[in-house]
Design a protein that fits this description.
Strand order of the largest sheet: 3-11-8-5-6
Distance between the termini: 76 Å
Largest sheet: 5 strands, mixed
Shape: elongated
Helix content: under 10%
Oligomer: single chain
Number of domains: 3
C-alpha cells in the first residue's frame, strides 16, 4: 500500500451542490471514458472500485482515497479531456504498481507518465480530475497504456464501462510537507524516519533537543539523502555526518529526544546546504509560519563489541601439532598460530597454523597443525626444528565463508579480535619432544 500523502487535504464539501456536481461528473466520466476507450486495449470486466475525494494539493501529486484492484495494476489520473474522448492524452499521472487487493490513501505523482509528454510539471489552477484503475495486462509492473497507444494495460470495467471516480482538486502552490518520527531503538549511528512527504522534494534533517533552545544550525546531527517530491517510508538517516557540521562524537551514547524536520532543496543541487550556508539555503518546510517537525524518543542499544580470549600454555610438541588450551570467540572464527617473527612486524609471514572454523563460544583443547592447511601459506619446512615460542591469536570469520582468508586477502578479511586497539594473543614456550 502506498504511503499516505499528508500534503493533501481530503476534506470533502458537504453541500448539495457538491453532491450534484459529483453525480453529474461521475456519470459524464463513465460515458466519456467508455467512448474514449472503445478503440484501446481490451478492458477487464471485474469488481474493481475507486474512491477519489475532493482535495487540496501543491499541484504535483494527488491522493486516491481507496481502490480495489482484483488482479492488481495501477491507478491512472486523467484530466477532463477524457470526457472529450481523449483517453490517452488525458492521462497525467499513474500510481506505482499495486498488488491485487484493496489499497487506501494511494499517492500518485502527476506529469510523470511513461510515453506521455507534458508542457508543465504541476497544476497551477483548480481542476476536475478522474481516477481510473488499470490492469497490468502483461504482468511486467510497468504502466504501458499510453506508450502502447492503448493496446496494453487497459482499464478495469463494470457493465462494459470503465471504473472511475472524479474529484475537484484545488491547488495551493505553497510547498507542503509532513513527517513522522516514531519512538525507536537505535545503535547510536542511525535513525529511521517512519514517513515523510515533501511536495517539492528535499531532505529530512534530524535535530537534537538543542533546537528547542534556539540552536537551529548546531542542533542538526543528521540528514537524509536527497528525496524526490512525494511520499517516502522508512527513510534511514545517518547521524553525525552533515555537510558543514562539526561533531565531538561519532554516535549517540545515551537515550535522547530527536526531532525530524523536512527541508527544501532551495538551490536545486540535491545537496543539503542548510548548515554550511548558515541557514541561507535549503530552509525547512513550514506550516502556519512554523517549521514542520515531529519528535521521538530514541533509545540507544549498542551492539556489544566482539570479544575474544585465548589461553596457550607452555607444552611439549612433536613439531607438527600444538594445542590451544582454551579459546573464547564471541562471534566465532579461527585461532591462528604465529612464530616469533610476528614480534618483528611480519604479520602475514609469521602465520604457521590455523584451526578449523570455530563456532561462537568457548572451545577447549583446540588441535592446530603446523605448516599445513593454511590458505595462502607457503613454507620451506614441515615441522618445528627446535624449541621456540609460538603465539596464538583469535581471528574473525568476517566474510562467513568458513575459510581463513586473512593471508589470501592480504588482511582485508578475517582480521584478528582486538582489545584496546591491540590483537588478542597469548604465547607459549614449545619444547620439542619425541613423545617419550
Amino acid at each position: 500500500m502506498t504511503a499516505p500523502d499528508p500534503s493533501v487535504d481530503t476534506t470533502q464539501p458537504s453541500d448539495s451542490n457538491s453532491t450534484s456536481r459529483r453525480r453529474f461528473l461521475a456519470g459524464a466520466a463513465v460515458t466519456g471514458s467508455a467512448l474514449a476507450l472503445s478503440s484501446t486495449a481490451i478492458a477487464m470486466q471485474s469488481s474493481a472500485s475507486v474512491t477519489f475525494d475532493d482535495q487540496t494539493t501543491a499541484g504535483t501529486s494527488v491522493s486516491v482515497a481507496s481502490a480495489t484492484l482484483p488482479k492488481g495494476g495501477f491507478i491512472a489520473i486523467h484530466d477532463d479531456r477524457l470526457l472529450d474522448g481523449k483517453a490517452l492524452e488525458s492521462v497525467i499521472g499513474v500510481s506505482d504498481a499495486l498488488d491485487a487487493g484493496t489499497h487506501e490513501t494511494v499517492g500518485v505523482e502527476l506529469f510523470d507518465v511513461k510515453g506521455a509528454e507534458f508542457d508543465s510539471k504541476m497544476f497551477e489552477e483548480d481542476a476536475t480530475l478522474i481516477a481510473m484503475p488499470h490492469v497490468d495486462s502483461n504482468g511486467n509492473g510497468e504502466y504501458e497504456f499510453v506508450s502502447s497507444g492503448g493496446q496494453k494495460d487497459g482499464p478495469y470495467t463494470t457493465d462494459g464501462e470503465a471504473v472511475v471516480d472524479d474529484a475537484m482538486v484545488s491547488v495551493d502552490a505553497k510547498p507542503m510537507a509532513s513527517v513522522t518520527l516514531d519512538d525507536q531503538t537505535s545503535d547510536g549511528t542511525m535513525v529511521s524516519v517512519g514517513s515523510a512527504t515533501l511536495s517539492d522534494g528535499g531532505f529530512v534533517a534530524i535535530h537534537d533537543s538543542s533546537l528547542l533552545d534556539g540552536e537551529v544550525l548546531d542542533s542538526v546531527i543528521g540528514v537524509s539523502n536527497y528525496l524526490d517530491a512525494g511520499s517516502h517510508e522508512d527513510v534511514s538517516v545517518s547521524l553525525f555526518n552533515v555537510p558543514g557540521g562539526e561533531f565531538d562524537m561519532e554516535m549517540m551514547k545515551e537515550d535522547a529526544t530527536l526531532i525530524a524536520m523536512p527541508h527544501l532543496d532551495s538551490n536545486g543541487n540535491e545537496e543539503y546546504d542548510f548548515v554550511e550556508s548558515g541557514g541561507e539555503a535549503d530552509g525547512p518546510y513550514t506550516a502556519d509560519g512554523e517549521a514542520v517537525v515531529d519528535d521521538a524518543m530514541v533509545s540507544v542499544e549498542m551492539d556489544p563489541k566482539p570479544t575474544a580470549d585465548v589461553c596457550f600454555r607452555d607444552q611439549k610438541s612433536d613439531g607438527e601439532i600444538v594445542w590451544v588450551n582454551r579459546a573464547t570467540l564471541s562471534d566465532g572464527g579461527f585461532v591462528t598460530i604465529h612464530d616469533a617473527s610476528l614480534l618483528d612486524g611480519k604479520v602475514f609471514d609469521s602465520v604457521i597454523g590455523v584451526s578449523d572454523a570455530l563456532d561462537a563460544g568457548t572451545h577447549e583443547d583446540v588441535e592446530i597443525s603446523l605448516y599445513e592447511g593454511v590458505p595462502g601459506g607457503d613454507y620451506e619446512m614441515s615441522m618445528l626444528d627446535g624449541d621456540t615460542t609460538l603465539i596464538a591469536m583469535p581471528h574473525f570469520d568476517s566474510d562467513d565463508s568458513g575459510s581463513y582468508d586473512f593471508l589470501t586477502s592480504e588482511g582485508e578479511t578475517d582480521g584478528p579480535y582486538t582489545m584496546d586497539g591491540k590483537a588478542v594473543v597469548d604465547d607459549a614456550k614449545i619444547t620439542l619432544s619425541d613423545g617419550c
